[in-house]
What does this fold into?
Amino acid sequence: MPAIQEEVEAAEQEGAHFVFLATPHRIVGENGAVKAIEVLKTRLGEFDSSAAAAPFPPRKFRATSATPVILAVGEAVDRDFCKASGLSIKENGTLEYDR
It folds into this structure.
């Protein structure tokens, strides 16, 4: 997750929990509610020609309790997904929520 230090600190202050080198595998539900997210732990592989080390999975799963799970992949809001999921979007493109 590329981020500047200020973004990381702000997320931590808001209660975000980071799990590094983990690939989301599945969301575990119970009675219609999110209970946990299961991730596949990875480790860094060899460096490639761009000097980046690609993660690869050693096949170790880990479940982390989670409520709620926010799907945040990409740089833009998928309005169709949000509408289908019952989520409301503000005019500025951010999600409406009630703490």
